Amino acid sequence: MNFFYRLLIAATLLPFFSLAQGNYKPGFVITLKGDTLKGYVDLKEWGNNPTNIDFKASLNKSAPQNFTVNDINYFEIDKIVAYRRFNTSISTDETNIQKLTNYRDTSAIVDNVFLKVEQTGKNVTLYSFEDDRKKRFYIYDHQNNNIAELIYRIYFVQNDKNNVATVSQNAYKQQLLTIAQKFVIYNDNIKALLEDANYNDPDLKLICRKINNTTKEEENTIKKTYVRFFAGAGISFNTITRTGTFPLYNSTPSHSSLSPKISLGFNFYPVPDVGKSVIRIEFLYTSGNYQTTGGLYYFQPDITTTYSFKERTYSVNPQFQYSLYNSDPFKFYINTGLLINFSQYTGNSVYNPVTNQNQTNYSGLNQHWLSVPLKAGIILKNHIDISLTYNFPISISDNLGGTHEDFNYSINLTSLQAMISYIF
């Protein structure tokens, strides 16, 4: 396993080198003077709205320019994401149920911030701003050239029975209603939509689409894919070893075999614009076998027999995956998770030539067991996933479950697996 340990060391050191790699995508920035600079913007997994970006006029330029919210009016990464600078009011009340106040908090600050473009149109543009406190939505009125936060508040009040109740202030509905009436597109349909609209991306985008009088196909918005399915096949090199004292004397302690491996599942991308972090759910099938020959009786070594079993294992594998090198043509990632295994066995018996009987359930083999694999792989052109997985040695036996509980031994499974998958 020297190769594996070298791979592990390399994977450990790679993050330090990848920090300087960046994730530059074609895009442009517009300065405060109105000048447009075309080049490449470093796309990051911004959980909150960014306050600055790194920009390169060309990929060959080693040192990037850093632009803050005080340097540029707008930046866009082609077909991925766009942000515009505004000096605007930002509400500071909480919407986290664990942090609510017992009064209506109308506090706010005014600051220069990058607002994320959620949807654009001829009448209004929908923006969003997220920080550690909460996510807010903004509406820009193209007729008045005015930006306003869509207000949503939630707080506690005491009712008549002296119990605490939760109250919501859905001011955003009246704000959108006023704008809809202004552009003479108010009708029973949009009224019903407003009454049922929640404070979230899909509902507010639908309302803005009605105000802009556009279809979903016509709207200028960034398309995101949070979930992608995959399917793959490969080969597993399995090694089963024994430790301790086994009932068959002088038997070979290890056995290796090759078996097919099949997988399917889906990837969830928390930040699909970047795609560095992935939560992966995988369903797998693989198999293996073990065979050894040894003596049944300690004082009669010439009486030998063969013990063997085959196992078929179905697994569920939730994983976390992170790309150390991340670009559209090529990604290099490491991955780990919890492998939950459900095994079925055939064989697991020994024929005794003295008594002419089969001893069934010879070893106690676990039908349910856990392991923690380590995986490294590459993704080519965002679709072809080639990976190598190492499953650390894990015991799949239980002495008390077999017919030889008086022997103290363990049957351990290790595997090295190569896979190729297609991400749809």
By CATH, the architecture of the largest domain is named Beta Barrel
Helix/sheet category: mainly beta
Rg is 31 Å
Q: How many strands in all?
A: 23
Q: What overall geometry do the principal axes of the alpha carbons give?
A: elongated
Number of alpha- plus pi-helical segments:
4
The largest sheet, given as strand count, sense and whether it forms a barrel, is: 10 strands, antiparallel
CATH topology of the largest domain: Porin
Q: How is the largest sheet built, in terms of strand order?
A: 4-3-2-1-5-6-7-8-9-10
Q: Which ranges are low-confidence, i.e. pLDDT below 50, for 5 or more consecutive residues?
A: 15-20
Query: What's the overall average pLDDT, rounded?
Result: 87
Whole-number tally of structural domains: 3
Q: Beta fraction of the residues?
A: over 45%
Terminal-residue CA separation? 33 Å
- Listing every helix as H and every strand as E from the N terminus to the C terminus, the arrangement reads HEEEEEEEEEEEEHHHEEEEEEEEEEE
The CATH C-level class name of the largest domain:
Mainly Beta
Q: Helix amount, in percent? A: 10-25%
